[in-house]
Amino acid sequence: MNLIFRLLAVILAAWWRPRMRMNETSELRFRVWPLDLDLNLHLTNSRYLSLMDLGRTDLILRSGAWKEMRRQRLGVVLAGSALRFRRPLAPFARFTLATKLIGCDERWLYVMQVVSGPDGLACTAVMRAAFVKKGKLVPPEPVLQAVSPGFGKEALPAWVAEWAEVEAAFAE
């Protein structure tokens, strides 16, 4: 139940927080609550993914992408993720979630998300997402240009391209 309150807080805070471009970093601060814990008494793996949804929501709202998505009647879907857990987050620990769009290709948006706690890096993730309309993928670059004019289609880091190849192997 506490996720709905966190979602509402992110949505409401987005109205007052500074606007940002799609290629800037969104930062959200959270605390590990008892309902976030697993049997090992640290932040459960599945909660990281739920919280990362909130980071992407903040980026979409504050960049103005949500307005453009509504205008074009687009949705956004997560198509893949790769996470690496480094350190546990203990009960009541404060932590920061940083979310940044690292680039796109003809079909996909690639988003890097980093969770840092009191002892340093806790988790890193890369997500692959897409804009969709009526069940079909929409090229991301025109949408990104409408939201952040001048958004460049920089070359993706080599490791992202390699990860995308591994993801494609799952489709076979």
TrEMBL record:
Transmembrane segments: none annotated. It holds the Pfam family 4HBT_2. It comes from the Bacteria. This is Thioesterase. It comes from Acidocella aminolytica 101 = DSM 11237. The lineage of its organism: Bacteria, Pseudomonadati, Pseudomonadota, Alphaproteobacteria, Acetobacterales.
